[in-house]
Amino acid sequence: MADAAPDWINGDPDDLRRWRNASPEVVNPVLPDDVAITALAPDGACPGGLICTPDRVEGVPVVYFHGGGFVVGSPETHRINTAWIAHLTRAPVISIRYRLAPEHAFPAQAKDAVAALRRQLRSHPRLRLMGDSAGGLVALWAHAGLTVEERGRIGDVVLFYPGGTASIPRPVGLGEDEAGGLGPKSLAAYQRRLDPNGIAGGDARYDPMAEGFAAPARMTILGAGADPILYQARALADRLKARLLVAEGEAHSFLAALPSEPAITHLKRALGETP
């Protein structure tokens, strides 16, 4: 059982990572029996990670970027997400290990994301692109960093409760609750650690709210109805003309409850596995 969450605002990143790594879905995840998880070795500048491969491969491979406020998380902490996506889509899911803040300042994460996506494009004619929470923004950086021809080979983008975009204003009256590291001070702390020089905001290469940002041609966003940062998912969907689904009553990171209901049903909808 994980200890009480440390201080997301001023806490030591190592303490935050130890807490995340001790979460129940990391220590003892309920994984599908028909999915094998193997290591993806680094290749030059391209990061490594994990590959989740179902017994019967039929679908388009998925490249996945994990969440964690740019400070915590890894392909290992998000095995429960990627293994169940592999099971439902019948496709390999390549979960990418990108550099974390504050040890590595932005745009290191965007560079890793682009390199990782290009690495997989060398082996696959088409890909799907996915990410959760802060990893949703990393996925968008990966897509935006491609050439026009490369972007045409991305079948679709699916983001789960995305957040971490400093240029989306917090709605008035939303409150100051910092529970779960999702309040205004926590979000500001993630940005301070990620981008101390403030280079991303307003830059069309990195800011999905900026004019000229390369939006995916086909994108689905699954937001959580009880998520304090649902406003970010809504703003991204509106700005990038994405299909928005909302899991009413669910909290941020509710996919950690997979494969229980209603997490599995909402995941199937976002992946296009159910009407």
Kindly report the oligomeric state of this protein: single chain
- The helix fraction, in percent, is 25-40%
Shape: globular
Tell me the number of structural domains: 1
Q: Per CATH, which architecture?
A: 3-Layer(aba) Sandwich
In whole angstroms, how far apart are the ends? 37 Å
| Overall mean confidence score, pLDDT | 95
Strand order, largest beta sheet:
1-2-4-3-5-6-7-8
Helices and strands, with pairings:
Layout lengths: L12 H9 L2 H4 L7 E6 L8 E6 L7 E4 L13 H11 L3 E4 L11 H14 L5 E6 L1 H11 L3 H4 L2 E7 L23 H11 L24 E6 L5 H11 L2 E5 L15 H9 L4
Helix pairs in contact: 4-5
Pfam families: Abhydrolase_3
GO molecular function: hydrolase activity
Protein name: Acetyl esterase
Please give a structural write-up.
By secondary structure, the protein is of the alpha/beta class. The protein has a single domain (about 25-270), classed as 3-Layer(aba) Sandwich (Rossmann fold). The protein has helices at about 15-20, 25, 80-90, 110-120, 135-145, 150, 185-195, 230-240, 265-270; strands at about 35-40, 50-55, 60-65, 95, 125-130, 155-160, 220-225, 245. Helix 4 (about 110-120) crosses helix 5 (about 135-145). It is globular, with a radius of gyration of 17 Å. The mean pLDDT is about 95.
Summarize the structure in short:
The chain is an alpha/beta fold and 275 residues long. Helix content is 31%, strand content 16%. The protein has 9 helices and 8 strands.
Primary descriptors:
single chain; 275 residues; alpha/beta; Rossmann fold; 8-stranded mixed β-sheet; 31% helix
